[in-house]
Amino acid sequence: MNATPQGTLALQTIAMPADTNANGDIFGGWLMGQMDLGASVLARQRAQGRVATVAVDAMTFYKSVLVGDLVSLWGRLVETGTTSMKIEVEVWVTRQPGNQLFRVTSARFVFVAVDMNGQKRSLPATGSERA
Half-sphere exposure of 69 toward its Cβ, with a 13 Å CA cutoff? Predict the structure, then answer.
């Protein structure tokens, strides 16, 4: 497990009481939704437009997220295809008091680039592919 976040900071938010489960911890579904949003920021940048989530692989929870934690989502593009992108996401929290920083979960999200009608489209060439 990494000692520090890997990738690009894609999203930050604060865990709130409305996002808790019956045990008073932050609901895993809320966290997964935040991860999808953070990953989509990177996917949209690479696709230069609309994207759709098509899969989530290997989501692992290491620790609970608590109300008041600063939730930071870090992502990195690890693979591209003709229309698809795989983005690894790590979620780190900063907990008070003490400014403790630790990883709480990670997953790999798969997106496809889509047109305005929701149909798959090719990813645009990057600068290195045009050379």
Answer: 24
Give the 3-state secondary structure of residue 4. coil
What's the half-sphere exposure (Cβ side, CA atoms, 13 Å) at 67?
Answer: 10
Alpha-carbon span 67 to 17, nearest angstrom: 6
Separation between Cα atoms, residue 114 and residue 17, nearest integer Å: 35
pLDDT tens-digit readout, 20-56: 999 889 999 999 999 999 999 999 999 999 999 999 9
Helices (H), 48-126: none
Determine contact, residues 102/93, Cβ cutoff 8 Å.
Answer: yes
CA–CA separation, 107 and 90 (whole Å): 7
Q: In whole angstroms, give the CA distance from residue 80 to residue 104.
A: 26
pLDDT single digits (tens) 105-120: 999 999 999 999 999 9
Contact 39, 8 (CB under 8 A): no
